[in-house]
C-alpha cells in the first residue's frame, strides 16, 4: 500500500496545530526551527505524537533533515509505503 | 569576514548578564586547597563540598594514594601510547582484573574516560540497519556515541516502561537492537525501573547496556549498581562505568560476559586512537575498586545520610527532584534561573558548594544539585541543611528550620 505526501499533509497539520503557539499559518513550507521556534523538549513531544498517529518510528538521526512540515510529510509517506 | 564566534553571541550575552548581576560565577569556581573528600578552601575560606561525585570518599584513601605513588615511581608518569600499541602495562591488566572481580563478569575493557567508553560502545555495537533505543534523558556521552555511529536512534520517554515497549514493538523484529539505560540519572538523582525495562527489552530480543556511572559503589549487596539491586545481573549484556565518581580518579570501562567481547578492543576507535591511562591512575583505580567491594559500612552510612538530608530539606520546605531519596543525588528545585544563581551564591557565602544546573542540562528545571559522600558525617548533614535554610531565607524562599 502506498501513501503519498499529499495524503499525509492535512492530518499532519492538524497534529502540529497545538504546537503552533505563535498561531501562524501552517503549510508544507513552514519550518519547525525558524517559523514555529520549537525547543528540543517540544520537538520530542511532537515527534512522539506523529509516531503514535502513524504507528511508525522517526529515528532521532533523521530529524536534522526534516526542516519543514513538507519534509516530515514526505518522510512519513515514505516510511508508511515501505 | 565572518567571525565564527558570532553564533555564540546569545550565550555570551546571557553569561555576561549573569556575571554583571553581582552574583558569583558558578562555572569558574576555583578550589585552592582540597582538605578531604568533603572540604575545600576557596578564597581563603573552608567550604563543605556537596556537589562532587566522590560518593564513596576514596580520593584520599591511604591505600589508594600509596598504590598511585608506587606506580608513579616504578612505571613513570605516563604511557605515551594507545592500549593497542605500547600503552598496556601490567597495571592496566590488573585494573581490568579488579573490574572482572568486582562485577563477577568474564570481560572488562578500560578506557581513558567514561565519556569515551560510551562513545566507543554506542558507535560500534549498532551499525547501519540496526537500532539504538535510549532514554530521552540519557547522558551526553551516550548521545554523542550514537551520533558517531550509523545506527538508527530511537528515544523513549524518560523512565517510561510502556513507551519503551511501544517503540520496541514498532521496530522490525529481525533487526539488531541495543537498549541503553542508566542506573541513576544524574541530574535529578532518580533511578530507572530496571527490572521492568530489562524484561521488556529482552522480550523484544534486544541487547542491553546499563550505564552505572552514578551508582557504582553503593547500590546492591556488592556495590555493582542499580542492576544488581534490581536483580537483573544475568540479563544485562554490558555495564558501562567510570572511575571519575565513586572510584575517585579518572577513567572509564565496559564489562560484559559476552564470549566475543574482546573483539571490541580492535574496532572501537575511542579505545584505539587515544593514549591509555597513566600507571598511577590505573593503580589508584584498581586499589579503590577492590576496597569498594567490601565497603559495606560506607554504603550503609551514605544511604542513611542521603535519606536524612532529603527528609530534612523537604521538611524545611524545599522542593526536591524526587519524592524520596533514590540515590546520593538530591536535586533542589529553584523557581527560576535568577533565584537559582542567587541561592548558589548565598550557599557559597555560607560555605557550601553545590552544582548549579541550568535548564538546558535538565528536563527544563533550574536545579541546585547536591550529592553526598560517605565521608559526610551526621553533623555535616545537619550543618548543610541549616546553611541551606539560611541561604534560602536570604533569597526569599519560603523555607524554615
Ligand atoms: C551517566 C554518565 N555516563 C558517563 C559519564 C562520563 O564519565 P567520565 O567523567 O568518566 O567521562 C558521566 C559523567 O559525567 C555520566 O554521568
UniProtKB/TrEMBL annotation, chain A:
The keyword Phosphoprotein is assigned to this record: yes
Residue stretches making up the Carrier domain: 3-80
Gene3D superfamilies documented for this protein: ACP-like
GO cellular component: cytosol; membrane
UniProt keywords, alphabetically: Phosphopantetheine, Phosphoprotein
A GO MF term: acyl binding
InterPro entries the UniProt entry points to: ACP, ACP-like_sf, PP-bd_ACP
One GO-annotated biological process of the protein: lipid A biosynthetic process
PANTHER family: ACYL CARRIER PROTEIN (PTHR20863), CARRIER DOMAIN-CONTAINING PROTEIN (PTHR20863:SF76)
Identification of the protein by name: Phosphopantetheine-binding protein
Organism per entry: Pacificimonas flava
TrEMBL record, chain B:
Known cofactor(s): pyridoxal 5'-phosphate
SUPFAM superfamilies: PLP-dependent transferases
Pfam families: Aminotran_1_2 (PF00155)
Matching NCBIfam families: SerpalmtaseAlphaP, SerpalmtaseBetaP
Taxonomy, superkingdom: Bacteria
Positions in coiled-coil regions: none
Residue intervals of the Aminotransferase class I/classII large domain: 47-388
Signal sequence annotation: none
InterPro entries per UniProt: Aminotrans_II_pyridoxalP_BS, Aminotransferase_I/II_large, AON_synthase_class-II, PyrdxlP-dep_Trfase, PyrdxlP-dep_Trfase_major, PyrdxlP-dep_Trfase_small
Entry protein name: 8-amino-7-oxononanoate synthase
GO MF, one example: transferase activity
Family: Belongs to the class-II pyridoxal-phosphate-dependent aminotransferase family.
Keyword annotations of the record: Pyridoxal phosphate, Transferase
Amino acid at each position: 500500500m502506498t501513501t503519498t505526501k499529499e495524503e499525509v499533509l492535512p492530518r499532519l497539520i492538524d497534529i502540529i496545530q497545538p504546537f503552533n503557539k505563535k498561531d501562524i499559518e501552517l503549510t508544507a513550507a513552514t519550518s519547525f526551527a525558524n517559523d514555529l521556534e520549537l525547543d528540543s523538549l517540544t520537538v520530542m513531544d511532537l515527534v512522539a505524537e506523529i509516531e503514535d498517529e502513524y504507528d511508525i518510528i522517526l529515528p532521532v538521526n533523521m530529524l536534522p533533515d526534516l526542516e519543514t512540515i513538507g519534509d516530515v510529510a514526505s518522510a512519513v509517506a515514505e516510511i508508511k509505503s515501505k | 569576514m565572518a567571525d565564527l564566534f558570532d553564533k555564540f553571541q546569545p550565550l555570551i550575552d546571557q553569561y555576561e548578564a549573569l556575571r554583571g548581576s553581582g552574583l558569583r560565577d558558578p562555572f569558574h569556581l576555583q578550589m585552592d586547597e582540597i582538605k578531604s573528600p568533603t572540604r575545600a578552601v576557596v578564597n581563603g575560606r573552608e567550604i563543605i563540598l556537596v556537589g562532587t561525585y566522590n560518593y564513596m570518599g576514596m580520593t584520599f584513601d591511604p591505600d589508594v594514594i600509596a598504590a598511585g605513588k608506587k606506580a608513579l615511581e616504578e612505571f613513570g608518569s605516563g604511557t605515551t601510547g594507545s592500549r593497542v600499541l605500547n600503552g598496556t602495562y601490567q597495571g592496566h591488566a590488573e585494573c581490568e582484573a579488579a573490574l572482572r572481580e568486582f562485577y563477577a563478569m568474564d570481560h572488562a575493557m578500560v578506557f581513558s574516560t567514561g565519556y569515551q567508553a560510551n562513545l566507543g560502545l554506542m558507535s560500534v555495537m549498532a551499525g547501519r540497519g540496526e537500532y539504538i533505543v535510549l532514554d530521552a534523558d540519557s547522558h551526553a556521552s551516550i548521545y554523542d556515541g550514537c551520533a558517531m555511529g550509523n545506527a538508527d536512534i530511537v528515544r523513549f520517554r524518560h523512565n517510561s516502561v510502556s513507551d519503551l515497549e511501544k517503540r520496541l514493538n514498532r521496530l522490525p523484529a529481525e533487526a539488531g537492537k541495543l537498549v541503553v539505560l542508566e542506573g541513576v540519572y544524574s541530574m535529578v538523582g532518580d533511578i530507572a525501573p530496571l527490572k521492568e525495562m530489562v524484561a521488556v527489552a529482552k522480550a523484544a530480543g534486544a541487547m542491553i547496556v546499563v550505564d552505572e556511572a552514578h551508582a557504582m559503589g553503593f547500590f546492591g549487596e556488592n556495590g555493582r549498581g542499580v542492576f544488581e539491586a534490581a536483580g537483573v545481573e544475568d540479563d544485562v549484556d554490558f555495564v558501562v562505568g567510570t572511575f571519575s565518581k565513586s572510584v575517585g580518579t579518572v577513567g572509564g570501562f565496559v564489562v560484559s560476559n559476552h564470549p566475543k567481547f574482546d573483539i571490541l578492543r580492535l574496532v572501537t576507535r575511542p579505545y584505539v586512537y587515544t593514549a591509555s591511562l597513566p600507571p598511577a591512575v590505573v593503580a589508584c583505580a584498581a586499589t579503590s575498586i577492590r576496597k569498594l567491594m567490601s565497603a559495606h559500612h560506607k554504603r550503609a552510612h551514605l544511604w542513611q545520610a542521603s535519606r536524612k538530608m532529603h527528609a530534612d530539606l523537604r521538611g524545611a520546605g524545599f522542593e526536591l527532584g524526587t519524592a524520596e531519596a533514590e540515590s546520593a543525588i538530591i536535586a533542589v528545585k529553584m523557581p527560576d534561573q535568577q533565584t537559582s544563581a542567587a541561592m548558589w551564591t548565598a550557599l557559597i557565602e555560607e560555605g557550601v558548594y553545590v552544582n548549579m544546573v541550568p535548564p538546558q542540562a535538565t528536563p527544563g528545571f533550574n536545579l541546585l544539585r547536591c550529592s553526598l559522600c560517605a565521608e559526610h558525617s551526621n553533623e555535616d548533614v545537619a550543618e548543610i541543611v541549616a546553611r541551606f535554610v539560611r541561604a534560602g531565607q536570604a533569597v526569599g524562599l519560603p523555607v524554615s528550620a
